[in-house]
What we know:
By secondary structure, this protein is mainly alpha-helical. It has nine helices and no strands. α1 (2-24) packs antiparallel against α7, α7 (128-147) runs antiparallel to α8 and α8 (151-183) runs antiparallel to α9. The two termini are 23 Å apart.
Amino acid sequence: MREAREVELEQRIALFDLLSSLFLTLPDEGLLEQLRALDWGESDSAGCNRIAAYVAGRREAPREEFLLELGRDRTRLVRGANNEGMRSAYESLYGAGAANETIGSLNRFYADAGFALADDVHDAVDQLGVEIAFCALLMRRELEALRQGDDVAADQWCEVREHFMAQHLGRWAHDYAADMRQFALTDFYRGVADLIDEAV
C-alpha cells in the first residue's frame, strides 16, 4: 500500500511541477523541445490527449511561430491581457474573501511549511502557479516521509495539503480552468485547463 501511495505521489508531483512551470515561466525553446520530443500515446487524461493533438498538428510549424502562438495565448489567459473578460490567474480575483485576507492566509500556510518563492519568481503569492508549486512541495515532503518510514509525518503533510486545497486552490482553480477553456485560442491551453481540473 505504501508503494502504491509513493508511485501516485511521484506522478502527481510531476504533473504539478509541469503545471506550475507553465504558469510561472514563459514558453521557451526548452518547453518546445520537451513537447516535440514526447511520445504522445493515447492517454486516460483528456488534457494530455488535447495537448498531444495540438502538438501533433503544430509539429511542422516554425519554432518562432509556435512559441509566439503559445506566448500570446498565455499572456491573454494568465495575465488577463484581453478585452473579453478573462480574469488573471490569481486567487484574489476568483475567491469569495477579501484579497488581503486571502494573501494573509496564504502567507501563513507558506511560512508554516517553510515555503518561499524562488528568487527568479516575480509573482504574487496567490498566483495559480505558486499555489500549485506549494502543493507539489507538500507532496514531496509527504513522499520523503513515506520513504523514511515515517507514516505519521507523511499523513501530517497530506493533511496540510488537503487543508490547503479546501481553503485555497480547490476553491477557485476549477472556475479559473473553466474560464481558461472558454477563452483559450489554442488547444494547448484548453488541454492545460483540462489538466488543472484533473489535478485539483
